[in-house]
Design brief:
The complex is a heterodimer. Chain A is mainly α. Chain A has helices at about 5-20, 20-45, 55-85, 90-95, 100-130, 135-160, 165-180, 195-200, 205-215, 225-245. In chain A, α3 (about 55-85) packs antiparallel against α5 (about 100-130), α3 runs antiparallel to α7 and α3 packs across α9. Chain B has 2 domains: about 5-220, Rossmann fold (3-Layer(aba) Sandwich), CATH 3.40.50.300; about 225-290, Alpha-Beta Plaits, CATH 3.30.70. In chain B, the strands form 3 sheets. Chain B has a 6-stranded mixed beta sheet, sandwiched between helices. In chain B, strands 2-1-4-5 form a 4-stranded antiparallel beta sheet. In chain B, β7 (about 155-160), α6 (about 165-180) and β8 (about 185-190) form a beta-alpha-beta unit. In chain B, α3 runs parallel beside α5 (about 135-150). Classes of the chains: A mainly alpha, B alpha/beta. Bound molecules: adenosine-5'-triphosphate (ATP) and magnesium ion. Adenosine-5'-triphosphate (ATP) binds near residues 14, 40, 42, 44 and 45 of chain B.
């Protein structure tokens, strides 16, 4: 294992994050605050409690997930797409590193950034609503797992993308709808039965449900199923990445 | 001398079906400087990229320091530094950080003292905190070299290291290369400047259309370049070499005669030739000498190759 290489990639990627520290933090803080003002205060004050939790608090896990998933995906996809785009990938391809080391470096950095942002949003929400976290360790574990799995997904997208439009497309077309329809702002039990069934095919539902369970001890789906879903998703992503590096798909001619 | 790089039957067909390397064999000796010359599109970059693992070989093998570059890629690549032809650099990063990154990527423990030495040798030390995008093209090329040297390679590939570099810096770069050679580093460089190959290489390889046409010691080539020709313009043209002059190496050339001789020998035979010309009653109107250069050897080899297709 070339640990120095992992460390170097990680540090190099984090440097990019710190160069744009202000944008990295300000935009999620502002958008979260807006969500709280609109959904939490303006609309939320007219919505009764959901499953015994005030609406303002109820949306916190979903809000964090929404940001974390989109940030993890876009950070990781950009992280590997950029070297491809500017040609510096030659160095990765000619260095004594294997796919696992490259992936750990890039995905680790992207997940760290997403985790930071998730924690910033969590801290921001304490300013707006009264929050008690029922299972803090589980909450953190879910957050980390989500950061990792969506960074893996983003990494795949970054390797696949042939231009900047494609880089934006998948997050916009797939991830945002899945997250919005995944129960970020409502409980699945609030839907009509037919939609409840359809929703069960949305993998994000399991993540948000599990994450919400860590906060409020209530869930749409059993917590074990949530863990299984996120584990499966991560395993699929790792498998795809291993295949990509073995075949050189889209990176090595 | 042992071979540090051995290329056997290396073939590269790109996705479109274009064959950029046609079963190339090449041995690179430990500690030498070998220059690869060849026209645009000859396959120089493809050859280097395939040896270094950036592109996959369609067929054939490469071994570096005795390690196969696919099955034992870690050991093979640990020895190799690569300076690509394109100025591929992260624009927003500081020079020092990109160089540190390269060192780490190759699994070497941080060593800023070594990096300082490298940057100084390339006159980049005062730019260490500058962002890459604020550097000139020639400076960027030196940053690429610094990145490759940061991890102390034993085999260094330089793909047109002096393209876009001014004359003075080119000389500095040759000094850097000479120092590396003194430290025992093997160097493979491609160039379009024949003087460059003449100035620093031990051996010269010529490549065209994906095939190696020649690999020869520079000195042997220089001996060939020692061949000079004397062109003798005559007042009255001849159709054949006059019988009286048959002992000289003469050929008919248009209006006159061509005499080939070797400058390395003590006697060129020019004096006696001129005397014999007069005796034979031929009137000379002009004399001209020409020396074949490496460039000519190169051009005629490549033209031959292209003519053959
Ligand atoms: N990615 C690619 N896909 C298809 N063909 C390619 C690719 N890269 C290079 N080629 C072709 O392979 C041939 C050799 O290219 P290469 O870059 O190795 O030449 P070169 O000798 O380095 O030329 P130059 O002196 O211009 O740098 C060229 O005909 C080129 O068009
Ligand atoms: Mg080239």
């Amino acid at each position: 294992m070339n640990l120095q290489a992992i460390r170097s990639i990680y540090i190099f990627e984090m440097a990019r994050f710190f160069r744009t520290l202000m944008q990295s933090f300000i935009s999620p803080v502002i958008s979260t605050s807006l969500y709280f003002v609109v959904f939490g205060t303006a609309i939320g004050s007219r919505i009764q409690e959901v499953e015994g939790v005030g609406y303002g608090a109820f949306i916190v896990p979903g809000l964090i997930m929404l940001s974390v998933m989109t940030q993890a995906t876009s950070n990781a996809s950009f992280g590997i797409y950029f070297p491809k785009f500017i040609g510096t990938i030659y160095e990765l391809l000619s260095a004594p590193v294997n796919f696992l080391e490259i992936t750990i470096g890039y995905v680790g950095a992207a997940a760290t950034k997403a985790l930071f942002i998730g924690l910033v949003i969590l801290a921001t929400s304490f300013l707006f609503v009264d929050l008690h976290i029922a299972h803090p360790i589980a909450m953190l574990a879910f957050l980390v797992l989500t950061c990792l799995s969506f960074s893996l997904l983003g990494f795949i997208i970054g390797i696949w993308a042939g231009n900047f439009e494609q880089l934006q497309l998948i997050p916009l077309l797939i991830i945002t709808p899945l997250v919005f329809l995944g129960g970020s702002f409502y409980s699945v039990s609030m839907l009509p039965p037919i939609w409840q069934t359809i929703t069960m095919f949305n993998p994000v539902v399991y993540l948000i449900s599990g994450f919400r369970w860590a906060f409020f001890d209530t869930a749409d789906v059993p917590i074990g199923l949530s863990l299984f879903a996120i584990g499966l998703f991560t395993a699929i992503c790792v498998g795809v990445i291993a295949w990509i590096f073995r075949t050189g798909w889209r990176i090595r001619q | 001398m042992t071979n540090i790089v051995e290329v056997r039957g290396l073939t590269k067909r790109y996705d479109g079906g274009f064959e950029a390397l046609k079963s190339v064999d090449l041995d690179i000796k430990k500690g030498e400087i070998i220059a690869l010359l060849g026209p645009n599109g000859a396959g120089k970059t493809t050859l280097i990229s395939t040896i270094c693992g950036i592109t996959r070989a369609t067929d054939g093998t490469v071994s570096i320091g005795g390690h196969d570059n696919v099955t034992d890629f870690r050991a093979a690549r640990n020895l190799v530094g690569l300076v690509p032809q394109e100025l591929n650099l992260e624009p927003f990063e500081k020079v020092m950080n990109t160089v540190r990154f390269s060192r780490g990527l190759f699994g070497k423990a941080p060593d800023d003292a070594h990096l300082e030495k490298v940057l100084k040798s390339l006159s980049l030390w005062d730019k260490k905190d500058a962002k890459v995008m604020m550097l000139s093209g020639g400076m960027k090329r030196r940053v690429l070299i610094a990145k490759a040297l940061s991890h102390e390679p034993r085999v260094l590939f330089l793909d047109e290291p002096t393209a876009g570099v001014d004359v003075e810096l080119r000389k500095d770069m040759w000094d850097v290369v000479a120092k590396l050679k003194a430290d025992g580093v093997t160097i493979i460089l491609t160039t379009h400047y024949i003087e460059e190959a003449e100035a620093i290489a031990d051996r010269i390889g010529v490549i065209a259309k994906g095939e190696i046409l020649l690999v020869e010691n520079k000195d042997d080539l220089m001996t060939r370049m020692g061949q000079k020709t004397l062109k003798i313009e005559l007042a009255e043209p001849v159709n054949a070499v006059p019988a009286a002059l048959s002992e000289y190496d003469l050929t008919v050339d248009g209006e006159g005669l061509l005499y080939s001789y070797d400058t390395q020998t003590d006697r060129t035979g020019i004096t006696s030739l001129l005397a014999d010309l007069q005796k034979a009653g031929l009137k000379m109107t002009d004399l001209q000498t020409r020396q074949s250069s490496l460039e000519e050897i190169f051009v005629s080899l490549v033209a031959e190759k292209e003519g053959a297709e």
